[in-house]
TrEMBL record:
Pfam family, one: AcnX
InterPro entries listed in its UniProt record: PMDh-L-like_dom (IPR007506)
Native organism taxonomy: Bacteria, Bacillati, Bacillota, Tissierellia, Tissierellales
Superkingdom, natural source: Bacteria
UniProt KW keywords: Iron, Lyase
GO molecular function, one term: lyase activity
Protein name per Swiss-Prot or TrEMBL: DUF521 domain-containing protein
Keyword Lipid biosynthesis attached: no
Protein source organism: Peptoniphilus faecalis
């Protein structure tokens, strides 16, 4: 392998046992992919933070207790629970204790304690072209596609080793030549531009995108730019990387490596072309949503964590009204966003409306079994994709306005959708 002097020193143990072990694992990864060299990364997003079992906790403790330090700025993903309000969330003490241990070991290694699955909305994202390592799927997809930074889909806890070594094998999406689209998705004429006013359409298209592209790089043409925001791109990234293994997408005319179709494809012709129609949106909605029911137990928002703007929007939609007593309305945000909404007075206003605001946690870890919640609503394609396999419920999908109205009336309130075919 072509190694720099510093990389050789790390492998020789001159920079500590943990750097040596990290490099040895990364050399194995490089050999597996027939990669000859490494590339330095500018940062890492650590996804080994939602408690998944004792092995995960002990692995991080082993690294931290043996002197491992992150050699690049390493932000942390959401945890299983709100660290201060775990009991109110009905998490058990074992999860809380494990989460505390995860937190302590990652901070000991020098993590930037963001505890958020949308770190890019709180000011700590890499820049265009920078090399990075992440294992959180929505972050990978957003960084690659929306920012133009470069990361492969690393598996947690491998990203911890990347952060300790400050390097990754130079392959896959780290290289410009591997970042061009191979397939194209277009929007059919029956999907009118004004349909994009309803943010839910981005979640449905994101779902279809993941289904078609799987783990390949595809571009999508025909998305009207005036309806695209960071929040919409967040939901698109999270959904496409859940229904498929999407690590990078190009939105022609919108994302930075796809200013033109030719740029997205590196001047080549798409190998495959798919067109999305109304009936596809209808099917995506059916895949992401159970049928509307009158009674509503809970509205759960924040997968990925809500941005400041989304909190402002929810507050506006509430317009001083209260969530009905029998329906829980939870939002999850980062501590940074919590500070911002406290400063602007929105925090108090949301509380007065009966919204429960939790920080740092993962809303997918909601204990519907303990709350006996059967009918749940969310605006998130990722949450709705995983809720059945992880929590045994199939939530109802709705946009932010519908989620708020449903919370106020305690029953599912959904507007007419042009893609709804009865
Ligand atoms: Fe975040 Fe958990 Fe969703 S980590 S992206 S709230 S699954």
């Amino acid at each position: 392998m072509k190694l720099t002097d510093y990389e050789k020193e790390m492998l020789d143990g001159k920079h500590g046992e943990m750097k040596k072990k990290s490099m040895l694992a990364l050399v194995d990864l490089a050999k597996f992919y027939n990669v000859e060299e490494f590339v330095e990364i500018v940062g890492c997003h650590d996804d080994s933070t939602v408690y998944a079992g004792e092995a995960q906790v002990q692995f991080a403790e082993y690294l931290a207790d043996n002197g491992a330090k992150f050699s690049v700025p390493t932000t942390t993903n959401a945890m299983a629970n709100d660290i201060n309000r775990w009991a109110e969330q009905k998490h058990d003490i074992g999860t809380m204790y494990a989460t505390n241990r995860i937190q302590a070991s990652h901070i000991k290694m020098g993590a930037v304690p963001t505890w958020s699955c949308a770190p890019y909305q709180i000011g700590v994202a890499p820049s265009f072209g920078q090399q990075f390592a992440s294992a959180e799927s929505n972050v990978i997809c957003y960084y690659n596609s929306v920012i133009g930074a470069r990361t492969n889909r690393y598996a947690g806890p491998l990203e911890l080793l990347c952060a300790i070594a400050g390097r990754v094998p130079y392959y896959g999406l780290h290289k410009k030549e591997n970042r061009f689209a191979e397939g194209l998705i277009t929007i059919g004429n029956d999907i009118k531009e004004e349909y994009f006013e309803d943010r839910e359409i981005f979640t449905l298209i994101g779902y279809l995108f993941g289904e078609i592209a799987a783990d390949r790089i595809f571009a999508i043409d025909g998305i009207p730019g005036k309806y695209v925001s960071n929040d919409v791109l967040k939901q698109f990234s999270a959904t496409a990387s859940s229904s498929g293994g999407v690590a990078l997408f190009h939105m022609i005319g919108i994302t930075p490596e796809a200013k033109t179709k030719s740029e997205a494809f590196g001047g080549r012709v798409p190998k495959e072309v798919f067109e999305i129609h109304i009936e596809d949106l209808n099917r995506a909605e059916k895949m992401l949503s159970s049928e509307s029911k009158d009674n509503l137990d809970a509205v759960l928002l924040g997968c990925p964590h809500l941005s400041y703007n989304e909190c402002v929007q929810i507050n506006k939609l509430l317009a001083g009204r209260r969530i009905v007593e029998k329906t829980q309305f939870w939002i999850t945000i980062s501590k940074v966003t919590e500070d911002l909404i406290k400063e602007s007075g929105i925090y108090e206003s949301l509380l007065r409306s009966g919204i429960e605001i939790y920080t740092d946690g993962c809303i997918l870890e909601y204990r519907n079994d303990k709350w006996n919640s059967k009918v749940i609503m969310s605006d998130s394609g990722k949450f709705n994709s995983y809720a059945f396999s992880m929590r045994g419920v199939q939530p109802i999908i709705g946009n932010l306005r519908e989620c708020v109205e449903s919370g106020i009336y305690g029953k599912v309130v959904k507007g007419e959708k042009p893609w709804k075919i009865h």
